[in-house]
Structure formats: C-alpha cells, structure tokens
Write a structure and sequence with these properties.
6 strands; alpha/beta
C-alpha cells in the first residue's frame, strides 16, 4: 500500500492506494477518514486498483472554509480519478461518502462504472420522519448544523467527543483502537472542515438514494462489507430493504 497527495482545483487530497486493475474508489463517512478502509484494502487490492481518499475537510486532505456542497466534493473525486490517469471507476461510499458518490454518479455518469451506497437513506426522508425519538438518537445532526458552535464546544476535547460515538456505534469494540479520525490535531480549526462538510450535506436538498448493491444494514467494515465493496464491479439492483442510516 502507498499513500499520495494530489491537488485538485487548489485543494490537496490525500489518499491510500493499493493493487492493480479496475479502479475501485472507497469513500469514507463521518467521522472517519480513509483509514477506516485499511482492514479491507488487502483483500480488495487482489482484484482492483483501490484508492481510498480523505474527502475535503477530513484527515490529511486540505480543510478549506468553503466548498462542502455534495456537488463540489463529488467534483473533487472526479478530478482525483482523472489526475490518477483513470477514465472510469467503481465507487463504494459509506455514510457521507455514499452521498458524495451518489452525487458523482448523477453528475458524471460516464465516469462511474458501478456504484454501491452503504448505510444511508435519503436525508429528506430522515427529516420528514423527525420526531422526539429520532431527535434524541440523532441529536448530533442538529447540533453539528449550527454555525461555529460545535467547534467552540468540542474543540477542547475532540477525542472525547468522537469516542462517545465510536463507543456507541462500533459493533466490535475490541477489534480496532481509535486511530486517526476525521481530526488530525488538537486545534479546534481541525474540527472545522469535517463539520462544514457534514453540515453542508444536510443543508442541501437531498437526492433520491440509488438502490444499488445494498441488501440490508451495514454498520461495520467486516467480511460482509468487503463482499459488498468487491461487488461494485458487478453490482445489481437491491431489494427494498433500506440501509440503516447513521
């Protein structure tokens, strides 16, 4: 496995790369980075050129103060594919990354060989069903949409904030320690990119979810997720069971 940095429209995008063959792009969610794909890179790279980037605002990629609409982030990924010398790619996106991948398939269908979206339902549908129970379970959605306040309140204990979610969301709590996350340092500014990216997704008018390659809830990157990701080279229409949203 190698790492690299490519500049796309003035933004430096960090990525992991392994293998050879058809390009398979893996897009992480919140609050992950490309690091979340490391456990499956080895198996996937046996049949693909696998590229796992840090989205704009996350990890080791640049964190500008603007440009976090899905269309802009999807354009980043299209530019990265072209910069790496590829014309088409299979795309697997999880959570926020699935929304970016979906937008990319809508805007650049000629560049997307296949698309698998994991662990999401349309944002508009989530807000349509919002009640006290959902608000209690997904309070961070509403909190992180507020301008500047999350950075102020979370900035002094970023690790504690993220560990709260990892403790409650992680299926195998002993399988992997908290490693590099969406935030790379103690400076509250490091929080800005990922929160701006997160808030922009939920503020934008959502698109209908692509029903491709997802046959049920996917919450952990284990063998089932590996198989889903590998299926991006020959994905087919899913059944009507929606993926569980974060």
């Amino acid at each position: 496995m190698t790492t690299g940095v490519t500049q796309v429209d003035g933004v430096r995008l960090h990525y992991l790369r392994a293998g050879s063959g058809l390009l398979l792009v893996l897009l992480h969610g919140w609050p992950q980075t490309s690091d979340c794909w490391r456990p499956v890179l080895g198996e996937l790279s046996a049949g693909f050129t696998v590229v796992a980037p840090d989205l704009r605002g996350y990890g080791l990629s640049d964190k500008p103060t603007t440009g976090y609409a899905k269309r802009r982030m999807a354009a980043d990924m299209a530019g990265l594919v072209e910069a790496l010398g590829f014309e088409r790619a299979a795309v697997v996106g999880h959570d926020r990354g699935a929304r970016v991948g979906h937008r990319r398939a809508l805007d650049r269908p000629e560049q997307v060989e296949r698309l698998a979206v994991l662990d999401i339902v349309p944002t508009r549908e989530m807000f349509r069903r919002l009640d006290a129970s959902l608000a209690s379970g997904y309070w961070h959605w509403l909190f992180q949409m507020q301008p500047d306040l999350p950075e102020r309140l979370v900035g002094r204990d970023i690790r504690g904030y993220l560990e709260y979610f990892f403790e409650r969301w992680t299926y195998n709590r002993h399988g992997r320690p908290l490693a590099r996350t969406a935030l790379t340092g103690p400076d509250p500014y490091e929080m800005t990119g990922s929160l701006l990216a997160w808030a922009a997704v939920h503020a934008a008018a959502p698109d209908a979810v692509l029903k491709l390659g997802v046959h049920g809830p996917v919450a952990a990157f284990g063998l089932d997720t590996v198989r889903l990701a590998a299926a991006a080279a020959g994905v087919h229409e899913a059944d009507e069971t929606p993926a569980r949203s974060r």
